[in-house]
Amino acid sequence: MTNGSTKGDLVDKIESAGPGSAKGLTTELAFFFHPSQFTTSTFGPTGNLQFATSFAQAFVNVAAPAEIACFTQTNQMFQQFVELVKPYARQDTKCSWIPMQEFGRLSAAGALFNPSAAISKLAWQRRHLGSRAYSLIGVAHTLPHHLVQDALAELVIGPVEPWDALVCPWESTKRATLRELSTYGDYLAERFKTSEKIKLGLQLPVIHPFVRIPETSEKTGRTELRTKLQLNDDDILVLTAGRFSCLTKASPVPMFLALQRTAIETGKKMHLLMAGWFESDEAREQYLQAAAELAPKLSVHILDGQNLEQMKEAWAAADIYTELNDNAQESFGLSVLEAMAHELPVVVSDWGFHREIIEDDKNGILIPTVGPVPGLTNEFALLSSLSLLDYRNHVGLASQFVSTNVAKCAQAYTVLATDANKRSELGKSAKATVAAKFAGPTIIGQYQYLLSELSKLRKNTEVTFAPENKSIASYPTRLDTSIAFADYATSTLSPASKLRLDSSKDEASSLLATLEPLPIAAIAKSMLLAPDDLRLVLNLLENQNSSMVSDLTKHFNSDKGKELLLSILWLSKMGLVTIN
C-alpha cells in the first residue's frame, strides 16, 4: 500500500512542530460528537473515550480558537459537548452547533475531527458538496475490532484525499494499520488484475497522545494513603491503574507471579494497589482469587480509579508503577504516561508502542515478550468472522499466547524495591520524557500544524487523488431509490408531463384541507411546498383543461423547483391531480 499524496514529507514534519511553531497556524475545527465516544470521567473508563474528551478540552484551551463547531444530531447532544469543553475554553471562544442536516456549514470550519477510524462514510457525504469542501481527521485505535477493520478497508476505496488524515497515536499503530490496509489493497489488485499498487489517498501522520504534567509536586497525599493502607516506611507499594480486564487489557498472572518472587527474594513487604475499575464484580473476584493463590505474600488493595482525589493519592503514595499489557486492543497508553508524569519508575511489557515511550533502563524498564509466528492463531479470526467468537473473547484468547518474561519482571521489581536511588533516577527521567514529548501544548501544536498543512493541500488545485468528476451518484453505496428503481414506475415525471385537477377546484381544496391534519398524509410534509403554495398549484390548474409541468415552473422561484416537482407527485398520490 503506497500513499497517493504528493506531500509525503508532511508526516516527517509533524513531529518537529510544537507549541512554538503553532503560532498563526490553523485553529478552526469542528468536532463530530456522539456521547458514546466521549466521557465525563477524568480517568477512563476506556482509553479511546478519555483521549477523545481530553483532546477536545486541550484543543479549545491550548489552540484558543475564536470559534469551534460541534457537528452532532441534536441540540441536547450539542449541550453535552459544551459542558465537556466549557471549563477549558477561553472566555471569548464561541461554540456553535452544526446539525447533521446542515453539514454544508462544515466548509466554514475547514476540518472535521472524528475520534475514530470511521471517516470514509464522512468522505462520501462530503462528496455531495465537493471533495475540497473541508478536511477529515480520524484517529486509529482499537484496531482488532471488526468494525474498525471494516472502517480501515473502506478507506482504501472511499473518496478520501491528501487533505484528509488518519492520525496514528504510535508508529506501531501505523505499521499495524498499514498491514490491514495493504492486505485489503493486495486483494483488490489481484481481484481486478491490476499490476499497479493500490494507493492510499489520505495522510497517516503519527501524533502521540498527551497527558497533563503536574505543575507542582503532588506527593502531599503520600503519607495519608500509605497510613490508610497500613504500610510501613520500608514497605513497597506497586501501583497499576486503569481498566482491569484479562480479556481486553492484560493478564495479571505474570505480574502476580513476579511480585511474589520479589517478596520472597527481598524479604520486603510488597503491596499492589489496583487503582481503576473492573468490568464486573465477577472479574474483580477472579483477580483477587488469582492474587491469593499465586502471590500469597502480596497484599492487594483496590481503589476507585475514577475518583480524582483518590487517584491523586495513589500517584503520590506509589513507589513503582507497572503495566504488563499483552493485548492488541491497547491503543493509547495513557495510564503509563500518567505514571511517568507523576515521576514514578515504570515497569512495562515490551509490547507495541511501549518501546516508543520507554528507553530500557533509562526512563523505565521494559520486560521482554514473545508472540506467536504470524498466522498461528488464524482460526481465531475465522471464528470471529463467523460470529462464533465475540470481540472480547477474540482478543482475550489471542493475548493468552503472548508471553511476558516473568523472571525478568521479578528481577526488575527486585532492583527497584531494593534501590530507592534507582527509583528516583528512573522517575525523574520518566517525567522529563513526558514533559519533552507528551505534554498537551506540544501535541496540540502538532495537530495545529497538521490542520494548517491539510488546509494548504485542500486549496492547492494541483493536488488531486480521487476522481474529480462525479458519477451519477455522489455516494454510490447509498443510491437514491429514484435512481436504483428508476424503471419500477409506469413512467417518470418530466417537464412535458400533463397535469389536470382530478375534481373541481373547490372539491380539491376541500380534500387538501381534510388531508393536512392527518398524520398518515403528513409523512412527506417537510419536503413539500408550503400549504399556500400547494393551493396556488390547484388555482393554476383550475382553469386549465391540461397544463404541463413546465408551465407551472414559471410561477415559482428556482429554489422551489425540487419542492414543486415532489409536490406534484404527492398531490397526484392524494387524488388531487392527475398526471398523464
Please describe what this structure looks like.
With 580 residues, the chain is α/β, with parallel strands linked by helices. The protein has 3 domains: 2-210 and 444-459, 3-Layer(aba) Sandwich (Rossmann fold), CATH 3.40.50; 219-325 and 332-345 and 402-437, Rossmann fold; 489-579, no CATH class. The protein is built from 23 helices and 19 strands. It has a 6-stranded parallel sheet with strand order 4-3-2-5-6-7. A 6-stranded parallel sheet has the order 11-10-9-12-13-14, sandwiched between helices. Strand 5 (111-113), helix 5 and strand 6 (135-139) form a beta-alpha-beta unit. The protein is elongated and about 105 Å long.
What is the count of DSSP helices, taking H or I runs of 4+ residues? 23
* Highest-level CATH class of the largest domain: Alpha Beta
Q: Tell me about the biggest sheet?
A: 6 strands, parallel
Report the span from N to C terminus: 55 Å
Mean pLDDT: 91
Shape: elongated
Portion of residues in helices? 40-55%
Structural class estimated from helices and strands? alpha/beta
Strand content: 5-15%
Domain count: 3
Examine the coordinates and then state which fold CATH places here, giving the name of the CATH topology of the largest domain. Rossmann fold
State the total count of DSSP E strands.
19
User: What is the strand arrangement across the widest sheet?
Assistant: 4-3-2-5-6-7
Low-confidence segments, ≥5 residues, pLDDT <50?
A: 5-9
